[in-house]
Amino acid sequence: MKTLLFSCLAVLTLNSCFQSSAEAQSVWYTDFEAAQKVAQSTNRPILIHFHAHWCNPCKQMESQVFPSRQVQQQLQQSVVAVKINSEHNPKLTSRFGVTSLPTDLFIEPSGKEIMQSVGYRGVNDYVQLVMRARTRYTDILALRNATPAMNPNESLSQKDQPVKPASVSGLMLEGYCPVTLWKSRRWEKGSQQFEAQYKGQQYRFVSAEALKRFKESPGRYVPQFLGCDPVVVWETDRAVAGDIGFGAFYDERLYLFTSNENRQRFKSAPDNFIKTQVVLHVDQIESVVR
Q1: What is d(CA 277, CA 117) in angstroms, rounded to the nearest whole number?
Q2: Domain ranges of the chain
Q3: What distance in Å separates the CA atoms of residue 227 and residue 256, rounded to the nearest whole number?
Q4: pLDDT by residue (tens digit) across 142-190?
Q5: Which UniProt keywords are present, listed alphabetically (predicted)?
Q6: Which of 1, 23, 62, 279 is 20–30 Å from 123 (CA)?
Q7: Which positions ≥6 away from 259 have C-beta within 8 Å?
Q8: 284: which residues sit within 8 A by CB, 6+ positions away?
C-alpha cells in the first residue's frame, strides 16, 4: 500500500513538473517575425531574450527563473516574449548590437529600442524589469499622444511657450571638450570653429584633431544616458540632466549626476545603475533648477 501511495505521489510530482515546464515554454515565441506581428496587433512591447547553449547564466535563468509562475504571469500580461538563440540567429543578434549573454532587450512593435538588461536576473528582479519596461512603453505612448495639433496661424503667448529640453537649450558639457576630458581628465573649453552633433546634442572641441577623434567613436566620449543622472533614471525612470560639477568616470565612460549624494551612491555600486540600459531621447530630458 505504501509503495502504491509513493508511486502515485511520484507520478503527480512528475506531472506537475512537466506541466510547469510546458507552461513556461508556452509563454515564449521562438520566431521573431511571429512575435512582432502579435505585438503589433495587441500594441504590446516585445521582449527578446538572447541566449546560447554554452552560456551558464542563460541555463540558470532557463531552469530557475522562467519556470516561475510569477514570471510567466508577468510576461503574459505585459509583453510579447521571444527567445532567440544568438548562434542560430546571428543577423538578428547583430541587428540589435548584442555582444553579451544573456541579454534581455525590450523594443516597441515597430522595432525601436526601449531598454535592455545584460546578465543574470533572479525571479523578483526579472519581474520588476518586465513591469518597468511595460510602464516605460506606456509612458512613451502617452508622451506621443499628448502632443496637441496646433493651428499654424495661432500664436502662443509668452506663458504658453513650450519649454526647451535641457539637452538642446545649450551646449553639452557647457562647451568643454569631451575628447580632452576623456584623454587627460582636464576641463578645456572647445571652440565654435569645431562643433558636432551627436544624438541631437551639440558638442565643441579644442581642435580639428579632437573633432576627428570624436566623429570616429562618439560613444566613447559623450556622457552616458545623454548626460542624465543614472541614479535618477534607474529609480524614477525620469531623464533629469546631470551637472558637470558632479561627474565621474567608470569603465572609461563619463556619467553626470544631479548631486554629490547620487555620485557617491553610484560609485559605491555602479553596476546596479547601469546593468539596465534605458533608451533616452533628447525631448525627454528635464532640466533642474540649481
Answers
A1: 6
A2: 23-143, 166-284
A3: 6
A4: 877 764 444 434 333 333 333 333 434 469 999 999 999 999 999 999 9
A5: Signal
A6: 279
A7: 246
A8: 143, 165, 239
